[in-house]
């Protein structure tokens, strides 16, 4: 991936790639820079010509003329998104493929700010404290920023948010919740180190999880709360990273129904969350959704090798069909549900499903999705001019969309392999058998400068953080 990078969008020398894909008659003649009416004439740069030629090639050939609310908001969305895919309204420097560079410094600055103080109107976000910390730390890690400066603060924050009877609340004094616990645990594991690990009361956490296990196999999100697939995924993440005992605590209500371990009935329960159209929903009988699909696949990838668990509990071809249908054309990014709009956060929620699905569905390394189309959406349409990443152009950036756009971009760049022979051995050891197999070699969208760090396909944190946590708690089957 060498070659000179155009310094500006008006660089007179076309890249070799452009020469390759655009024949002469498709090129729009460019006016000389000396022309004073340059802007008024609407000159199209060579990069824009290439973008337009690509977008034309992926346009849906048959358009349903029926007007509905959904079709109208889709048309409005295209009007907003297309200028960013065709041109470069933010005036970002372009990479060797004529696509905006990833604005790493600006995004780092944005995410560091997200870990700072918030103005009074944000008081309502207090219950999301673990999420704000997790999204920001994970976004920074993906960008290659050393997060160790946050270790003491993370330990302090989550020591105070740890509920005496187990688990973590959204903030100080809040009741424990599995979503808050998941985000807190990932944050603690990401900063890592003995002091962080020993800040966790594993025994009370085990008891908390025991209260949530349901007789049908799933998990409630909180005591007396809703049972959904987030619960299954979040509980398994915590059980695996902290190497907690698989036996249910003696006071777990599910024991009265004959269950003895956290894993009882769990795989079949996840399987029942697969909807008629192949996607995965929050709970049996609900509408399929991208984020629940990731939770379901993440849970199955913790339960065992994806090739075994996916095929045991899911109709994989139907799932692949549904996931593929979530990638929008010509936008390239993903939506989260049928007939919904492209949104940068699904770059992870759906884009992040593929590594697991590929490990479960194929015997050879093979890409089932269009990585470049997603990378194009993230780089061209999801970067906010001043830093941070967004749902779609016109929206404000936030830590959530920054984290998951970056995770999706990382998924387009790296190849992950599930390796049966690697990693630790013990309960829920499957997620430690993943390894990276280099960058995706065929990209025509991002260059070396845009490359970001690998993200663990199951835990969505750095590989090293997941491995070190598990290794620390190895041999601590008790407490
Ligand atoms: Zn979103």
TrEMBL record:
InterPro entries per the UniProt record, alphabetical: FTB, PGGT1B-like, Prenyltrans, Terpenoid_cyclase/PrenylTrfase
Biased composition (Polar residues): 1-16
Protein name stated in the entry: Protein farnesyltransferase subunit beta
Biased composition (Basic and acidic residues): 17-30
EC number: 2.5.1.58
Physiological role: Catalyzes the transfer of a farnesyl moiety from farnesyl diphosphate to a cysteine at the fourth position from the C-terminus of several proteins. The beta subunit is responsible for peptide-binding.
Organism classification: Eukaryota, Fungi, Dikarya, Ascomycota, Pezizomycotina
Note accompanying the cofactor annotation: Binds 1 zinc ion per subunit.
Record CDD domains: FTase
Top EC class, one word: transferase
Subunit structure: Heterodimer of an alpha and a beta subunit.
Record key words, sorted: Metal-binding, Prenyltransferase, Repeat, Transferase, Zinc
Family: Belongs to the protein prenyltransferase subunit beta family.
GO biological process, one term: prenylation
